[in-house]
């Protein structure tokens, strides 16, 4: 056996040779029975000869059946081997194409940063130096240039994050979701200044995950909750968890604008947005990044919502076999 439990090639070839030789051995036995049946006939014992001849015919028939079955088995084995090889080749080509696409996206997004920063900077300088001589239309045009450059720069940042999700190798450690949420809350504090936002934190367990990637996922979910509760005079954002049979489930719930469940499938697709920029700014990449991060950890993402009544975004992380059991997680949440 090899390192992953498959039979060694010499052993497989030896087994194939034995299977191919088996029908030949049976044919020889059938011939011997038939010849043996002739001898008693010549000696005047026809009934014994008939018995031997019948035995030889039965063995010959069985041999043909076995030979046909072995032939079909060999054909199936050859077809399976050919199919596996084709799947392997196509998977390798698809993997290479995805790698090239990711590298291309990363390069394009990275190279766009410089020109965008220059465009925004020169527009700001032009507005400062020629501000008094510009009419209202010209000032508005410069403002639109700066806003467009700012949105494009945000899109580039999101694309770089989206690409990084696939490029980096997972470095899993024990991560406190509670500490991570509190850390992200502090970083997003400027987005809630002057607003009435009530945070509700349930008991959040420790999980086995890549901390930077999990932080990015939580950052995107909390940013979404802050953004889509902007129209509420009193916003409520709740972060909690539950422990299922083989996974830890984290949720972020808000009382914002919500969404139509008919469009729920679009939420985690890149560049799919349910609101235009006039209603809520965004690039349509944040939730797609959350989906990829969770998917790389072997988990799931889903959402529930009602128009005008808020939304809940869920993601799960599987319990692992490296010392952390589902029962331990349940005790931590319960305790």
Structural class designation: alpha+beta
Task: Determine the fraction of residues in helical runs and give it as a percent range.
Answer: 55-70%
Q: Which segments are poorly predicted (pLDDT under 50) over 5 or more consecutive residues?
A: 2-7, 321-330
Distance between the termini: 47 Å
Describe the global form.
elongated
- Integer average pLDDT: 76
Order of helices and strands: HHHEHEEHEEHEEH
CATH topology of the largest domain: Heat Shock Protein 90
Order of strands, widest sheet: 2-4-5-7-6
Which CATH C-level class of the largest domain is it? Alpha Beta
Annotation field: number of helices: 7
Percentage of β-strand residues: 5-15%
Largest sheet: 5 strands, mixed
């Amino acid at each position: 056996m090899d390192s992953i439990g498959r039979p060694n090639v010499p052993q497989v070839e030896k087994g194939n040779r034995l299977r191919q030789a088996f029908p030949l051995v049976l044919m020889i036995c059938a011939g011997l029975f038939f010849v043996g049946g002739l001898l008693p006939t010549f000696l005047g014992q026809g009934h014994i000869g008939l018995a031997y001849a019948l035995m030889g015919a039965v063995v010959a028939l069985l041999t043909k059946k076995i030979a046909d079955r072995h032939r079909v088995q060999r054909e199936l084995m050859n077809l399976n081997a050919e199919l596996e090889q084709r799947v392997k080749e196509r998977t390798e080509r698809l993997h290479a194409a995805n790698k090239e696409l990711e590298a291309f996206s990363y390069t394009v997004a990275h190279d766009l940063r410089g020109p965008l920063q220059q465009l925004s900077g020169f527009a700001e300088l032009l507005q400062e130096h020629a501000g008094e001589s510009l009419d209202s239309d010209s000032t508005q045009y410069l403002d639109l240039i700066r806003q467009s450059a700012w949105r494009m720069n945000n899109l580039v940042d999101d694309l770089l994050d989206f690409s990084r999700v696939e490029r980096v190798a997972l470095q899993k450690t024990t991560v406190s979701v509670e500490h991570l949420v509190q850390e992200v809350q502090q970083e997003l504090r400027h987005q809630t200044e002057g607003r009435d936002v009530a945070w509700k934190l349930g008991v959040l367990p420790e999980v086995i995950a890549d901390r930077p990637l999990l932080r990015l996922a939580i950052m995107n979910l909390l940013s979404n909750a802050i953004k889509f509760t902007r129209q509420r005079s009193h916003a409520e954002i709740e972060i909690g968890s539950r422990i299922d049979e083989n996974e830890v489930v984290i949720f972020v719930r808000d009382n914002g604008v919500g969404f139509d469940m008919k469009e729920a499938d679009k939420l985690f697709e890149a560049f799919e947005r349910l609101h235009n920029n006039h209603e809520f700014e965004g690039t349509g990449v944040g939730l797609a990044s959350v989906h990829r991060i969770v998917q790389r950890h072997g988990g799931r993402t889903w959402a529930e919502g009602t128009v005008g009544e808020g939304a809940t975004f869920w993601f799960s992380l599987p319990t692992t076999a490296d010392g952390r059991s589902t029962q331990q997680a349940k005790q931590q949440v319960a305790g």
